[in-house]
Amino acid sequence: MGESDPHIHVETNLNADAAVRNKIASTFGLASDLPGVVTTGCELRVPRAMTSPLPARVTCLACREHAHRQHLRSAEQLERLSRMPGMNVSSAQARLAADKHRGLAKRFSGMDT
Q1: Average confidence (pLDDT) per 10 residues, the chain, 113 residues
Q2: What is the DSSP letter of 40?
Q3: 20 to 30 A Cα–Cα from 13, which one of 57, 60, 75, 95?
């Protein structure tokens, strides 16, 4: 981990750990500690404080490319899962979530308008 790295990165899992922690905390009132150092999309280990899930804040180009690919992959998975029998998600809900991921992918690629 370079102490002089000025870039803001994105976590490999796009902050999924934090989202799960927040859901558990809001549901059960329990909150675990998140790790202070995380692996990023560019495969560096950096302090969590040097990461962001927000496209406008991420300055590492490799991390932006990683987030772009991950959000596109998530959109595809959501649409595929919504077509499976027995899923508790309507196709309209899946489409909305997939559209959100595609919008984030577009913002991470720098093609937002």
Answers
A1: 80 80 79 85 94 94 96 92 80 90 94 57
A2: B
A3: 95
Instruction: Confirm if 58 and 65 have CB atoms less than 8 A apart.
Output: no
45-47 and 37-39 strand pairing = antiparallel
> Residue 106 and residue 113: Cα distance in Å, rounded?
9
pTM of the model: 0.81
Chain centre to alpha carbon of residue 105: 10
Q: Using DSSP, state whether 47 is helix, strand or coil.
A: strand
With CA atoms as reference, report the closest residue to 53 among 35, 34, 36, 66. Answer: 66
Structure tokens at 97: 């979530």
d(CA 25, CA 32): 8
